[in-house]
Design a protein that fits this description.
By secondary structure, the chain is of the alpha/beta class. It is built from 17 helices and eight strands. Strand 7, helix 7 and strand 8 form a beta-alpha-beta unit. The protein starts with a helix and ends with a helix. 33% of the residues are buried.
């Protein structure tokens, strides 16, 4: 009973905490010729760092999807597995607006006049409003379920997709939509597109068949620019929403996350030290460009490629690795350690001592790693006194 009460309190506290950062805005749309209610979540850090940019997520069917997406987005950001996002929900169920908003012509599967107006409302009015009033990065996600999921794809099949990521939960695809998606996925040439598709057991046989046919088409796409994930869930429609959003976030923001074991095995393991360092640098450049997050190199990622730097090419890139880390973490002993290893490997013991001692001095008093770090100094002292004299000079460093 106590566990149940605690869980209820925790969930209530979480909902209350992020609800304090949500604005309800009445938006007067000329395109729709009416007023629409938006829910806008802005991360607390927005008011603290005036230089930071934020990816945007547009949530259709906001009455059902918005809170679930916001809760997951906060969790992923807190776990450093996704950037913080500005999240905009469009309410569409006060008067069943979703049916007009997302309506399409049966003869060609394209939007009706009302659907086209809703399309222009998002791509024109809403985008302009967000760009003028918020610090937004180039990366945009759109989320929909059933009928609204189908509608998200109109932003994909246009010449230049308006969004980078598409989350389709139990989509009710228009007749021609699977083929249109397939054609677009094959033709992508510039920006990566992230596409998530889910299917639940409660979908009708007809809908499940269409989704499975779409899956088969997308499975055949060989374009590396099309980042695609499909999942089938053995749950009802409501449970599928939460599962789909969490899984989609993990897939879409894999680039942002620290290097996982899967990423290491697939992309990093077989690289040379120079290419591994370049991979790490490019990863963070792309993170900053797409998500507006000027992250420092994570120590997890440093350690992820450490073995490659140490074990390949006789440690020739240890110095480059250490210097890169020292630029980012001036107060950390890690960079000095790698440079020390470089000189120790080359039997330049005086220079190795210099960097090991510099690193040791950066450790705070009482650091539990101090004794282990000092072993580097003792080891090099023994090597120096037992093998060479003290004739090395600082000029040795300048020759490297």
């Amino acid at each position: 009973m106590k566990k149940i009460l605690f869980l209820s309190f925790f969930l209530s506290f979480t909902i209350l905490s992020f609800s304090q950062d949500i604005q309800l805005k009445k938006f007067n749309s000329k395109m729709l010729n009416n007023e629409r209610y938006l829910k806008i979540y802005v991360p607390p850090s927005y008011a603290i760092d005036s230089t930071k940019l934020y990816p945007v997520a547009i949530i259709l069917d906001a009455e059902y999807l918005f809170d679930v997406y916001v809760g997951n987005a906060i969790l992923f950001a807190n776990k450093d597995e996704a950037p913080e996002q500005i999240i905009v929900g469009i309410n569409q169920n006060y008067y069943d607006e979703r049916y007009k908003d997302c309506s399409y012509l049966k003869e060609n599967s394209l939007p009706t006049e009302e659907g086209a107006n809703f399309y222009r409302f998002i791509s024109g009015e809403l985008f302009q409003y967000l760009e003028e009033n918020y610090r937004v990065s180039p990366f945009k996600t759109i989320v929909g379920t059933t009928l609204t999921a189908n509608f998200t794809n109109y932003f994909l099949i246009e010449e230049l997709p308006s969004f980078n990521a598409f989350i389709n939960i139990n989509p009710y695809y228009a007749l021609d939509m699977p083929l249109l998606i397939h054609q677009k996925a094959q033709s992508l040439k510039t920006e990566n597109i992230y596409y998530y598709l889910s299917n639940g057991k409660n979908n009708s046989e007809k809908i499940q068949t269409t989704i499975n046919e779409t899956k088969s088409l997308l499975d055949s796409v060989q374009n590396p620019k099309f980042k695609y994930k499909y999942e089938a869930f053995n749950n009802n429609a409501t449970a599928t929403i939460g599962q789909s959003i969490a899984s989609a976030l993990a897939s879409i923001f894999e680039l942002y996350s620290p290097i996982s074991s899967d990423e290491f095995e697939k992309n990093v393991k077989h690289l040379s030290p120079a290419d591994a360092i370049a991979y790490l640098e490019n990863k963070y450049v792309e993170i900053e460009y797409l998500f507006g997050s000027n992250l420092k190199l994570r120590q997890k990622d440093i350690f992820a490629i450490e073995a490659i730097i140490l074990d390949k090419e006789n440690g020739d890139y240890l110095k480059n690795f250490g210097e890169m880390i020292n630029k980012l973490y001036k107060d950390s002993p890690i960079g000095d350690y790698y440079i020390g290893r470089y000189y120790e490997t080359g039997k330049k013991y005086k220079l190795a001592l210099k960097y090991y001692k510099t690193g040791y001095m950066k450790l705070p008093e009482g650091d539990p790693n101090a004794d282990g770090y000092y072993e580097n100094i003792e080891r090099v002292l023994n090597k120096r006194d037992g093998i060479i004299d003290d004739s090395e000079t600082e000029n040795d460093e300048q020759k490297q």
